[in-house]
Amino acid sequence: MRIWAIPLAIASTFLLLDQATKWWVVQTLGPETMARSIALPGGVVRLVYSHNTGVAFSMFQGHPELLTVAALCIVAGAIYFYTAHLDHHQTLIQASMGLIMGGAFGNLIDRIRLGYVVDFISVGWFPIFNVADSAITIGAVLLIYQFLREDLAERRARKHETLTSQ
């Protein structure tokens, strides 16, 4: 159970943060989408209420049932992969999985409850996103970083082994 303490704490924190920010955005900028916005200092980022019936970057719009099933499969796969194939005793991997699961569940709750995901962070030309999307992205980047770090360490060890055996 210890391997779940950090992922569950991080997932719960980001799930609550995601749902709270979405609730605030709907209350503040809703009920119509894209009708109002709040520019944050600097003018690059603005908050705007938007529905996303697709996935990242609004791809695959209009298939909420399929996307809900796909999201459930991805979460189940991530849990299996974490327990069966990752070094789940490493803090960075635990944090990565917490971020990914918290974000995935945040968007999954929207899909099940609303039939779409609430997005609200608009940065320049980039597609509108939310806290859950950010958590998933950061978690994935940290996981990739950890894989690259491990791969580099393995390569260095093999090179050192080759040099010392000659």
Automatic annotation (TrEMBL):
Transmembrane region(s): 66-84, 91-109, 129-148
Primary location recorded for the protein, binned into one broad class: membrane
EC number: 3.4.23.36
InterPro entries given in the database record: Peptidase_A8 (IPR001872)
Entry annotated with the keyword Hydrolase: yes
Location of the protein in the cell: Cell membrane
Catalyzed reaction equations: Release of signal peptides from bacterial membrane prolipoproteins. Hydrolyzes -Xaa-Yaa-Zaa-|-(S,diacylglyceryl)Cys-, in which Xaa is hydrophobic (preferably Leu), and Yaa (Ala or Ser) and Zaa (Gly or Ala) have small, neutral side chains
Residues at the catalytic site: 119, 133
Pathway in which this enzyme or protein is active: Protein modification; lipoprotein biosynthesis (signal peptide cleavage)
Superkingdom of origin organism: Bacteria
Function field: This protein specifically catalyzes the removal of signal peptides from prolipoproteins.
Similarity annotation: Belongs to the peptidase A8 family.
Annotated protein name in UniProt: Lipoprotein signal peptidase
Record organism: Candidatus Chloroploca mongolica
Phylogenetic classification of the source organism: Bacteria, Bacillati, Chloroflexota, Chloroflexia, Chloroflexales
